[in-house]
Every structure is written in structure tokens, then in C-alpha cells.
Design goal:
about 800 residues; alpha+beta; five-stranded antiparallel β-sheet; four-stranded antiparallel β-sheet; 31 helices; 13 strands; about 10% strand; elongated
Length: about 800
């Protein structure tokens, strides 16, 4: 293998300009192909999609969770209710007039024409908005005495100052039946503590107005939501200033949390990476004594990344942005190959001896790491499959390119014995395996790890990995006091392939939820079921209406109204419109009929995607009632019950199991590959046992210190596993060459490993200073794993080599070609 790369080196050395042009053109082509890539930002693509959760995944993809931005406009000490309304008007006018491209609607402000339109809609379709209890109430109103009382009250209203406004309502509906139907709108989410006043949703203490903004873009689409977030925060600052000490507002909602997370991640990465890169650049220049080192070091990594993205763009229509984001962190392993080569060039006298020494361990390391990442293809998650392909191609591409590119571009000012030693050389020359104290401590920790590794738990709560700003925390606290926003919510989803079938399922679900609420088995629920029902139920509602208003009952009611009206000067024709309503022949409504009414948010509850339909109800519930509700609906094959936290926990729990299998697949492939390269079981054991010890020690220390895995750190564990494999392979090859040729080459291998450790600790470990909990969690796991891998490779591995090989040339492998 060394001879192959030596021949390539000599071929290029004679035509460097020619091959340089080819390289630039190739990088340009890869950049052009990669620039056309389309990214999928859906974080749910991380979750494996298998037969067990296929139905749930399909429902989740279709359900509209309506992640709104809630605006809480609050009155302060020096303000009056008029100020509160003026602030709300200024806010809604500004958003509606200037930022329509970012939103679909603003709820909480009811225009007069919308209110009248809703009342007319309910009036013209009364049978569909009345419950059994409403008919009982109507029955109590239509006897003669009650009609006389109602007519008197209507007359007094008409002669009052507001009579002009009330006239149209009274003549159309003297019994106020339509207002009974309007009560069903409460099931769409209007809280009992709120009322409509001056066109806004106002708290009963008249100190708060709530507005609900529906963004046009999904919560996960932070790139599109970012400008709107900046806009409304600027508007908030201006309005709070204009109404200082009178009115102020706070915002809360999923889209704002997602934007805050994205901003904090960007800030943390910029801060930590700038620190890490600054230190690394100084370290590389100091160690290699050359200013061009950073450029030389990163070119193979850039080539590998471009190659991977270009190939992915040819085999995928979209690539998971999440996978590339994680992959960018994992690409630190590709820099290690450049570091190994640079370190060996610095220490070897000739290029040929360099290739003889380094080619095999570099190719072995890249292949084993690539195979470990390709095992992600066994996980039924597109994002993780993209990550596996991206990382594997990057690792192979950068390692091969580094072997060809770096010896052509890096020529140390001194080599071999003429190189001035640095602190890294001093550490590399130290015999860790002879430090009895260090070995004793490691042995004690390994034994202790046997009892603590199984204490490491997988934290499936994604909410703990979210970053929320102090402003959002304060907004959530205020909202919780108003509408109990933090109480447990269950989503109950009816689904199917036809609207009629799904609505029939939802009818039954609504009936059971109503019963639960009457029995105090649930706190409250929001459902479209009271307003929108199946044709089957609508036909029954029409029949119930007709049965209730039998001919005799309508005739009697008309007589009573005319007779009582005569006493107050009403004409016999005053209520003709109401009589026509009683005689009207009603027809069932379609979904499109409800959609015409802006105050009825159909899209918040009903989602249609091709031939798959979902109708969602949201149930507010105490924790001790969860099992009762789930048991009541889980037996129905067309209903799914979940809460958003638990569904993530369930799906991510499956991901943890998938990763347990992944480690097994990776380990098996690595063993087979090492056997193929070494053709020696003992050398394979010398390389594999430190990897197992590293994994045990990492898990043991995590269990000892109470650290948890999460969705991000468990993916990073693949990276740690790959680094442990690299370190073990380099140490085995270093020990092997030192025994074969009786030369002190092990220190060079150790120096390259130390540089890799420093690079990785600075690149990933510096994230410990990040404010975002997901990033800081990556740092802790990485630091423990990387340091464990280095110490075990430097202490236990030489001992294993001596124990198995015993410096006998009989156990040597064949010399490299």
C-alpha cells in the first residue's frame, strides 16, 4: 500500500502544475454540484420510521399542531382599558398591513362584520349547533307564560338606547335560540376567563388582551421565521416605549422558541469555534513551524466534505440539514488524518519512508471509521442515513486526498533529529505504560465502570435540550397564570381516508369527551366536533329539529308570539323571518361551507393531505387522568392518543435501541476489517480490547457522575467510537513498526494522536462554554470519551502488545509493500 501511494507521489511530483490545475477544476466542479443541493430542515427525520410507528408517523406528519405565537398585551399601573385596546389595535394594524407574507392569520381580534357573519351562519344552520340540553331549554321557553315574559323583555330592549342595534336580532330570533348555538364556539378554545369586548379577546379582569398569530411557515423553518421574529420584537420595543408605564406586551410560542434556539446555537458555535480555531492555528504554527499549515491541514477536509455533498446530491432529491449539521461536528475526525501525515512528515527523513509508515494505518482508520458510519444505513431514519453516507464518503475522500496532497505541499524546514522538540514531543516520549499510579487508577476506574456503566440513562425529553431566553421564560410564566399554558395536553386524533369516515369517528370521540368533561374526568377540551360533524350525524340533527318543532308546536308558538306581541304593539308579521326559519328544509353542510366563516378555524383542527385526513382534539388534563383517557380511545384503530413530549420520548426511545444495535454492527465490521488487514488474531485483539475498554470507561464515568445520553450526544458517541478505533490502530501500527525495525517510531505515532486529542478537545470540548444545553451536553460526553481513548491507548495497549507478542519476530506480520 505504501508503494502505491509512493508511485502516485512521484507521478504527481513531475507534473505538479498539471495536477494542480486538475485539482482546482475538480474542486470547482464539486463545489458547483454541491451548491445546487436542497435541504430538508425537518428534525423529525431523525426519528426512525418503521412498521411499529408507521401509523403514528403518518398521523404526526399530517396533523396541524398550530404552533401559534401568543401575544399577551398587559395593562400596567398607569394605564387604562382604552390604552390596552389602542395598543392592541396598533399592533394588529402594523402586523396585518406590513407583514402578511409571514403570517396566515391573527386570532383574538373579532371584526364587527366577522361577528355578524358568524351569527348569521349559526342562525341559518341552527340544527347543527344545538345540543340535547339546548332543546330542553327551548322547550321551557315556549309555553304561554314564558313567551309573554320573553316578549316583554324584547320590548324593553327595543325601547332602550341600544334597541336600534338589537332590533334585527330580536325580529329574526325572539327566543335567542341562535345564541345557544354560538356557545358551541367555546369548544374551539375560548377560555372561560375571557370575553369579547371592543372586538378583542379580553381577560375578565380587563387587564390582558390575548392575540394568536399563525405563522405562514412551520416552526422548524427558522430561516423563514427569523425575519418575522426580529420584526415583531422591534415592534414590541417601539410600542412598549410609546405606552411606557401604561401597557406592555410579551410573546411566547414554538416558532419563537425555535428561532431563539437557532440564534443561540449560532452564537455559541461562533464564539466557541473562534476560540478553538485561534488556539489551534497558533498551536499548529508553533508545532510545525510553518504559517501555511492551517491551509494545508484543512484542504483535504474541505475536499472530503464537498465530495460527500456532491455524491449525496446525485442520489438524493433532498438532504437532511440536521445530518449535515451533525456531520460538520463529526468531520473533526478527517482533520486527524492530515495531522497524522503532517506529524510523520516532520519526523521522517524521506517521503518513501513516510508512505511506508503511514499509508496502512491511515487507510485502515478511514475504512473502519467509514464502515462504522455506514452502519447508520441500518437505522430507518433518513437524516441518520444521510449522516452515515456523508461522514463515510468524507472520511474516505479526505484520507486519500490527504495522502496525495499533503506530501506534495508540506516540506518541513528540518526533519528527523534536527527538529526542535516541543511540549507535545515531550508528552509523546513519555512512557505512560510505565506509570504505575496511572495504570492503577485506570484499572480501578475500569473495575468501577463494570458497576456504573448500566446507570447511564437516555434522556428522551427534548424540551430539556431547548434554549429559552429570559424574555420567553417570563412570557410563559405570565401566560400560565392566565390560561394554564403549562398544563398537560393530550392530542386525540381521528384519521382515515375519507372525510365522512373520519368525521363519524370524531363524532363518537366528541361524545365521549363531552361525557368525560361532565364527569370531571378531564379539565377541558377543544374540539371541532360540536360544530362540524359527519353527514350521518347532521341528518340526525335535522331530524331532531323537525321532530322537536312538530306542526302543532310551531303553530302554538306562533299564536303565543302574536298574542303577546299585540299587547306591546308588535305586528303579526314582526317575526315572520323566525317563522320561516322554523319551516325551513335544512340540508347537510360540507367542510367548504364552514371554511367560509373566518371565525371558525377549521384548518386548526382538520388537515387533508392527498387521501389522508386527520381531525384533532386537544384535551387539558391532570396527570392522574392520562391513563383513563388513553385507555378509552386506544382500542379504536382509527384514533391515536398522544402528547407531544411522550410521543417524542417513545420514538426516540426506539432510536436508542437502534443505536445499541448500531454499536454491535460497527464492532463486528471493524473486527472483520482488522482481521483482513492484520491477518493475525493477536494483533486484532491488541487493537480491539482498548476500544472496548474505552467504551466501558466512558459509560462508567458517565454513570459515576450522573451524566445522561440524549438524542445529540448519542450520535456523537459514534464519533467517539471512531476516534477510539483510530487511536488503537495507530498505536498498534506504531508498536508493530517499532518492534519490526527496532527504531523509536512510537513517539511519532503518539504525537499525532496527542495533536488529534488537542484538536478534538478544542473543537468539541470548548462547547462546554455554550449556553445552549444541547451543545454543552455534547462537550461533556466528548471530553470524557476522547481522554479515555487516549489514556487507554497509551497505557493498556503497549502492555497488551507486550503480553501477546512478547517481542517475538514470529508474531510479526508480513512487511508492507
Amino acid at each position: 500500500m505504501g508503494n502505491l501511494f509512493w508511485k502516485i507521489y512521484r507521478s504527481i511530483a513531475h507534473k505538479r502544475i498539471y495536477y494542480g490545475i486538475i485539482s482546482i477544476v475538480l474542486m470547482g466542479i464539486l463545489s458547483w454540484i454541491a451548491s445546487g443541493i436542497k435541504f430538508d430542515e425537518d428534525i423529525s427525520k431523525l426519528i426512525p420510521a418503521n412498521k411499529e410507528n408507521e401509523k403514528l408517523q403518518k398521523v404526526l406528519k399530517n396533523v396541524n399542531f398550530s404552533d401559534k405565537i401568543i401575544v399577551n398585551i398587559s395593562l400596567e399601573d398607569n394605564g387604562e382599558f382604552e390604552d390596552l385596546v389602542d395598543y392592541a389595535i396598533a399592533f394588529t394594524d402594523s402586523i396585518s398591513n406590513n407583514y402578511n407574507k409571514y403570517i396566515t392569520s391573527i386570532k383574538g381580534k373579532i371584526e364587527e362584520e366577522d361577528a355578524l357573519e358568524t351569527i348569521d351562519f349559526v342562525y341559518n344552520n341552527l340544527p347543527f349547533f344545538l345540543s340535547e340540553s339546548d332543546y330542553e331549554t327551548i322547550a321551557s321557553k315556549i309555553d304561554k307564560d314564558s313567551i309573554e315574559t320573553i316578549t316583554k323583555a324584547n320590548y324593553e330592549t327595543l325601547v332602550s338606547p341600544s334597541g336600534f342595534i338589537a332590533k334585527s336580532f330580536i325580529v329574526k330570533d325572539p327566543l335567542g335560540v341562535s345564541f345557544m348555538g354560538l356557545k358551541q364556539l367555546n369548544e374551539l378554545g375560548l377560555a372561560d376567563d375571557f370575553k369579547l369586548k371592543d372586538g378583542f379577546l379580553v381577560h375578565k379582569d380587563e387587564k390582558h388582551i390575548l392575540l394568536f398569530i399563525s405563522p405562514k411557515f412551520d416552526t422548524g423553518n427558522t430561516a423563514e421565521n427569523q425575519p418575522f421574529s426580529d420584526t415583531i420584537y422591534r415592534l414590541q420595543k417601539d410600542l412598549n416605549s410609546d405606552y411606557k408605564n401604561k401597557v406592555r406586551s410579551t410573546y411566547f410560542g414554538g416558532p419563537l422558541i425555535a428561532v431563539a434556539n437557532a440564534e443561540q446555537i449560532k452564537t455559541d458555535i461562533q464564539f466557541t469555534v473562534s476560540i478553538a480555531l485561534s488556539i489551534l492555528l497558533l498551536l499548529f504554527i508553533f508545532f510545525y513551524k510553518k504559517l501555511s499549515i492551517p491551509l494545508i491541514l484543512f484542504v483535504p477536509t474541505i475536499f472530503g466534505a464537498l465530495l460527500a455533498i456532491a455524491i449525496l446530491s446525485l442520489i438524493r432529491t433532498e438532504i437532511s440539514a440536521i445530518s449535515l449539521g451533525i456531520g460538520a461536528v463529526l468531520l473533526g475526525v478527517t482533520i486527524d488524518y492530515s495531522l497524522h501525515i503532517l506529524t510523520h512528515i516532520r519526523s521522517h527523513g524521506t517521503t518513501k519512508s513516510l508512505y511506508t509508515s503511514i499509508s496502512k494505518p491511515i487507510i485502515m482508520s478511514s475504512l473502519t471509521t467509514a464502515l462504522a458510519f455506514l452502519c447508520l444505513l441500518f437505522i430507518e431514519s433518513q437524516a441518520l442515513q444521510d449522516l452515515g453516507i456523508f461522514a463515510a464518503i468524507s472520511v474516505i475522500g479526505s484520507s486519500v486526498f490527504a495522502l496525495i496532497f499533503i506530501p506534495q505541499t508540506y516540506k518541513p524546514k528540518a526533519s528527523g533529529n534536527n527538529i526542535k522538540s516541543t511540549f507535545i514531543d515531550t508528552i509523546a516520549n513519555y512512557n505512560f505504560n510505565k506509570n504505575k499510579t496511572l495504570i492503577a487508577v485506570l484499572c480501578i476506574l475500569l473495575v468501577l465502570s463494570l458497576f456504573t456503566f448500566n446507570k447511564v440513562v437516555f434522556n428522551k425529553d427534548l424540551s430539556q435540550l431547548n434554549y429559552t431566553s429570559p424574555e420567553l421564560d417570563n412570557a410563559e410564566l405570565q401566560l400560565d397564570n392566565l390560561i394554564n399554558i403549562s398544563s398537560k395536553s393530550l392530542y386525540i386524533v381521528a384519521f382515515g381516508n375519507t372525510m365522512e369516515a373520519v368525521l363519524q369517528t370524531n363524532d363518537n370521540m366528541h361524545r365521549r369527551l363531552s361525557k368525560f368533561k361532565s364527569e370531571d374526568a378531564v379539565l377541558d377540551f377543544n374540539s371541532i366536533g360540536a360544530l362540524v360533524s359527519s353527514s350521518k350525524r347532521q341528518n340526525k340533527q335535522i331530524q331532531d329539529w323537525e321532530d322537536f318543532w312538530g306542526n302543532n308546536k310551531k303553530i302554538k308558538l306562533k299564536e303565543y308570539l302574536i298574542e303577546s306581541g299585540n299587547a306591546f304593539g308588535f305586528k303579526s308579521t314582526s317575526f315572520n323571518e323566525f317563522y320561516e326559519l322554523l319551516d325551513k328544509k335544512f340540508n347537510s353542510l360540507k367542510i367548504v361551507d364552514y371554511s367560509k366563516i373566518t371565525s371558525i378555524p377549521i384548518d386548526d383542527f382538520i388537515s387533508v393531505n392527498d387521501d389522508f385526513i386527520t381531525v384533532t382534539s386537544i384535551v387539558k388534563i391532570n396527570k392522574d387522568q392520562i391513563s383513563l383517557v388513553k385507555d378509552a380511545f386506544n382500542s379504536d384503530e382509527n384514533i391515536i392518543v398522544f402528547d407531544r413530549q411522550n410521543v417524542n420520548e417513545e420514538l426516540l426511545g426506539g432510536l436508542k435501541n437502534e443505536f445499541n444495535n448500531l454499536i454491535g454492527y460497527s464492532f463486528t465490521l471493524i473486527v472483520l476489517l482488522l482481521l483482513t488487514f492484520y491477518k493475525n488474531i493477536k494483533l486484532t485483539l491488541i487493537t480491539i480490547l482498548p476500544i472496548l475498554a474505552t467504551w466501558l470507561l466512558t459509560l462508567g464515568l458517565m454513570g459515576l457522575f450522573g451524566l445522561e445520553f440524549n438524542i445529540f450526544s448519542i450520535i456523537i458517541s459514534t464519533f467517539i467510537f471512531g476516534l477510539g478505533v483510530d487511536y488503537s490502530i495507530f498505536m498498534t501500527n506504531g508498536l508493530l513498526r517499532q518492534s519490526q525495525y527496532d527504531i523509536k517510531t512510537l513517539a511519532t505515532f503518539k504525537a499525532s494522536v496527542i495533536l488529534s486529542v488537542i484538536t478534538t478537545l478544542l473543537g468539541v470540548g470548548v462547547l462546554i462554554f455554550a449556553k445552549h444545553p444541547a451543545l454543552s451536553s455534547l462537550a461533556l460526553v466528548s471530553v470524557i470519551g476522547i481522554i479515555s481513548a487516549m489514556l487507554i491507548s497509551f497505557t493498556i495497549q503497549p502492555f497488551l502488545y507486550k503480553f501477546f507478542i512478547r517481542n517475538s519476530t514470529k508474531e510479526m506480520t508480513n512487511e508492507e509493500n
